[in-house]
Amino acid sequence: DKSLENQNIPLAREKNKQKTYQIAAFLVTDEIDLDPSRPLTRTETETYYVQGGDTLYSIADKFGLSIDTLLWGNNLTLRSIIRPGQALEILPVDGITHKVKKGETLQSIAKKYKSTVECIIDFNDLADASDIFSGDELIIPYGQEPYIPPPATVKPKITQYYTYTKPTGNNCHTFVSGQCTWYVATRRCIPWSGHAKSWLANARNMGFQIGYTPQVGAVISLRESGWAARRYGHVGYVEYFNDETVTFSEMNFKGPWTKTKRTLNLDDSRILGYIY
Question: Which helix H or strand E contains 3, and what residues bound it?
Fold first, then answer.
């Protein structure tokens, strides 16, 4: 019957239209790496009041959100403390909210949060990309908060100097002339023996304190390259230090009887420790 056939055409077109919309939505989802299988049970932000025993992670898990979404939406960090009765804004989907400012476009907003214009239009039920006004609150589904590096802080360098007077006594050990151990022993009394490699252990066994913080007049024990340094170790004498570096004098780093002075960062992996 031709009349019945004609009546079915709009219905078929409607079905095709619906299928096309679903496919387009899936493509948008795929573009920004979303999970299309995740059901959207809410479309608006709601307020949740913290209960006893809640944690940031448990609240995020309760609403099926990432911890970042919860933090971003409430200006919190992982170190923030939440208390019972505290109100938290809960987004309906992973992402972030944005208040439109004068001069912004949907394209610039999408780029800022690593989203897409189509996704923002669809989720916020906008007519098109121009359907935003200053002051509008938008939900950016699966958006990411832009990284803002912390401002650089300049710490004052407090350098400590000290003139060390070598103590005298019968228990001071002597070492082979021109070596690093011999030089340090001329700057302070060394009552233990052995190659530089064993000084940390030997000093500790004799009751001397060792640690990882420099002090003026301390012995610095180092791990250096080269077969001799790897076999025998290397030591120096701390002259001064600040919040970032330590400066020490030494001998035999560039050859026997050759005295040099170097500065290393406090976290340099070559520093094994200090003897006080």
Answer: helix 2-31
pLDDT digits (tens, 9 = 90+) for 5-16: 444 434 433 434
CA atoms 126, 129, 131, 137: torsion sign:
positive
Burial (CB count within 10 angstroms: exposed 0-12, middle 13-18, buried 19+), residue 236: buried
The structure's pTM equals: 0.42
200 with 181: CB under 8 angstroms? no
* 23-141: CATH topology: Membrane-bound Lytic Murein Transglycosylase D; Chain A (3.10.350)
CATH of domain 160-275: 3.90.1720.10
Per-residue pLDDT tens digits for 143-156? 988 877 777 666 65
All structural domains of the chain with their residue ranges:
23-141, 160-275
